[in-house]
Amino acid sequence: MTGVILAGVIGALFALGTFLLLRRDLIRVVWGLAIISQAANVYLLAMGGIAEGTAETVPVLEGHGHEIHVPMAVADPLVQALVLTAIVIGFGMTAFALVLSYRVYEEHGTLDVSKLGDRE
Amino acid sequence: MTPESSIVLAAVVLPFLVAGLTPLLYRALGERVGYAGAAVAALCFGLLATQYGTEGVVEVAWIPSLEIALQFYVDGWGLLFASLASGIGTLIFLYSPSYMHGETGLARFYTALLAFMGSIVGVALAANLIAIFVFWELTSLCSFVLIGHHTGDADSQYAARMAMFVTVGGGLFLLVGFLLLSIVAGDVLGPAAAFDLTAMLENTDAMESGLRERGYFLPVLGLLAIGAGTKSAQVPVHFWLPNAMAAPTPVSAFLHSATMVKVGVYFLGRVRPLLVGVEWLLLFATVGLATMTVCALLAVAATDIKELLAYSTASHLGLMVAGFGFTSIYGAETGVFHLLNHALFKAALFLIAGIVAHEAGSRKLSELGGLRRDLPITAAMTVVVALSMGGIPPFNGFYSKELLFEAALEASHYHDIGALGWIYPAVAVFGSIFTVLYSLRFLSLFFGERPDELGEVHRPAIPLVAAPAVLTVLAAVVSVDPELAVRAAVQSGVDATAVDPHEMHVGLPTEYSTPVGMSAVAIVGGLVAYPFYDRLHAGIRAVPRGLPPSSPSWWYGSLVDVLPRAGAGLAARVHNGLLRTYATWTLAATAAFALAGFAATGMISATGLGIEIPIAVALVLVVAVAAGLAVALSETHVAGVLTLSILGFMVAIFYILASAPDLALTQLVVETLVLLIFLLVIEEIPEFDESLGRTARDAVLSVAVGATVFVTVLVATDSRPGATTDVARYYATRAVPEGGGTNIVNVTLVDFRGFDTLGELAVVALAAISILTLIVMRSGHGADPGTESGTEATDGGDDE
């Protein structure tokens, strides 16, 4: 049943992100983007399956040389690599969106998206 | 004999090649570039002539790695059409420099004309359905450029758009028909033959049963009919052809009488053995005869000589379509023979109309008359070709019209079609009466009284007369010895288009038969009605004026009016420059489509969830949602930023619990940086009092999106296998031997997927440069030191 909680949490984060995305305040729109990208990362990682964390599941192998043992229970390293990329890109996007908002405020003196648009 | 691939390819490619060079040639040769075009067309004609009598497939490797080859199929029917295009093209290029003397945009004109000729040769010889479609649409595009030659003239622009809209639109229907055909061919004949028209024509029985089994027969027939009907100006989309007469006369003679509009007819002949049957008969005989009659009536209503010829062209195209529509051997003979005859006499008539307009300075039927004294040679030519158009013996048009009457009479012997068995012949005769009428009216330009207001008429230049003269002589030769034309060209065309071909014979009738009687009725009817021409003319003109919806161009006009207004209205709603509008439509549509997709595939059935998470993880995530809620409800920017940070750190803890230490480290660094940048920026900007005006609507959309994601997570994560995937296993076992590192995630990022990470770094670097640009480069203002240090932090973050 805990799967339903996961689905509910991701759904709730998307709903909150969407709600913020529809605000008139540009800063809140950026928050919405940030929340949605966090939720998407959580979902992506969940796709690889989440097990109780133990020393076996962490995708860092023990020892050096040729005698390397790969435990069967190791967590999916592929989704982790994907999410790691996604976190960094999401950071770039958030930072850019934020500075873009700041520049919009400098140029137009407002952060109200309903006053921006093409009918200035 | 098999055709020579290099020659066939040269004949198709040469016109395009020279078309590309035409702007350069125009600089060197000026207006004489037309004669260079004539040389190319003649060369093409010569190349095609060397292939006379050959039959077979020619293949040129196109994309060898995908086994896609450009196939050409050479046979009598394709060669006849391609040679008509290049042969008449030669004459048009000879005629054009004199006619177009002093006009602007000649480089464009000749480029389009040459490209058009290449497209026609291509469409005539192509055997691959995709190639046929491409060449087909290229002819429409060239036609668009040529109709709109007078770019400053609104009428010309309107006509060009109309022709484009109708013919290119029809071509899209054709494409869908081709795709259906290729689906069936891929199943029945094997994947290699999916787009191979030749293979389909060799296995007509298998293809027909395959089409009927899948229920595609009628859709394919209908779609190909729309494609061919729009191209060949059949009722009810015949209206674009008279408007296309805004083009210069050489274009009208070439594209809109001899070649482009015949592409549809040509193609019907090509697929006739594949689809012929009672449905074929009912569709094409009806459409063809309706076009023949309606357009003959409209030609009588015309006031302008080119308009008369345009409607007459549509009417004769109807005759050819009807001919191919009749399933008997006479039907194929009508279609092929009339295609040749019509190309000869109608191109000549257009060129003659061009001479009249050029020398007498008017195209109005009411202002012209008695021109035989001024233009004696032209008048003599007109006698031959106009009487041929009217189907009067012993001129060549008569023979093919006799074949149509014969085919119409025979139709009831082949299929049980009830009353249509006598309606078809009756309509054919009725339409022919008007054909005789307008042919006589055109001839009357040269006879009778010369109107006083007609000014001085110049003698036409030699090339202007030479081009129609060649066509007239050819028409006369066919008139005198039709068997010669049959032996030389028509028979092989009939062989390709008929189901069970046999030897064809034509000639002047020596004894009475029903078709002879029908011709006699049509000719006598036309002669008797001729004195009442003006009354008929006025009567037919009154109909669309009294009842606008009776004319298809009224429907076209309404549609063209409504579409832009509807488009503008829609754009104003959907594309209004407001972010929330875009977000609303995009998110709502995505959610609706995703849910509809799940519902349609019956995925929504929560039977056992494949994913289970530990309780600790669930708790951390619930705290993250609480933080998210606090962000949404925060009244100040600072509160929002801080709660957003709580959310981020909760996600970092989630990563730790999910056995992803690298993600947790990255997330912690990123969250710290985001918090700093946010704090730096919000310090500079004022608080915003978010009014709660539209909260309800937004909440509904948010819940919808959230619910969609909820369902998606449940159904899409359901089928997750218990153990790690093969890919994951691959990276895990190869990390040390091939990457030399024990941290699988790091090895994956920097080694196995190193280029992806490079791309990621490029994105972050781009974002950093953009941020720097946005902050520093503001016309004249200096950068804010506070935010700049934030940007440096951004750059630092890239090294992760």
Automatic annotation (TrEMBL), chain A:
Question: Mind telling me which residue stretches traverse the membrane in this protein?
Answer: 6-22, 29-51, 81-105
Q: What is its main location?
A: membrane
Which UniProt key words apply to this protein?
Cell membrane, Membrane, Transmembrane, Transmembrane helix
- Is the NAD keyword given for this protein? no
Instruction: Recite the lineage of the species.
Output: Archaea, Methanobacteriati, Methanobacteriota, Stenosarchaea group, Halobacteria
Q: Does the keyword rRNA-binding apply?
A: no
Q: What is this protein called?
A: Multisubunit sodium/proton antiporter, MrpC subunit
Where does the record say this protein resides? Cell membrane
Organism equals: Natronobacterium haloterrestre
Q: Which Pfam families match?
A: Oxidored_q2
This protein's membrane topology, according to the annotation, is: Multi-pass membrane protein
One Gene Ontology cellular component: plasma membrane
Classification via InterPro entries: CPA3_antiporter_subunitC, NUOK/Mnh_C1-like
Q: Spell out the PANTHER family in the cross-references.
A: ANTIPORTER SUBUNIT MNHC2-RELATED
From TrEMBL, chain B:
The MrpA C-terminal/MbhE domain extends over: 694-775
Sorted UniProt keywords: Antiport, Cell membrane, Ion transport, Membrane, Transmembrane, Transmembrane helix, Transport
* Residues annotated as transmembrane: 6-26, 33-52, 72-95, 107-136, 172-195, 216-241, 280-301, 308-330, 336-357, 377-399, 419-440, 461-480, 582-605, 611-631, 638-658, 664-683, 695-716, 758-777
Q: Which residues form the NADH:quinone oxidoreductase/Mrp antiporter transmembrane domain?
A: 126-415
The membrane topology term of the UniProt record is: Multi-pass membrane protein
Q: Where in the cell is it found?
A: Cell membrane
Record-annotated MrpA C-terminal/MbhD domain positions: 623-686
Gene Ontology CC: one annotated term: plasma membrane
Q: Which InterPro entries match?
A: CPA3_Na-H_Antiporter_A, MrpA_C/MbhD, MrpA_C/MbhE, ND/Mrp_TM, Proton_antipo_N
Where is this protein chiefly located?
membrane
Which GO terms are recorded in the biological process aspect for this UniProt protein? Answer: monoatomic ion transport
Domain NADH-Ubiquinone oxidoreductase (complex I) chain 5 N-terminal: residue ranges:
63-110
MF (Gene Ontology): antiporter activity
Q: What is this protein called?
A: Multicomponent Na+:H+ antiporter subunit A
Native organism is Natronobacterium haloterrestre
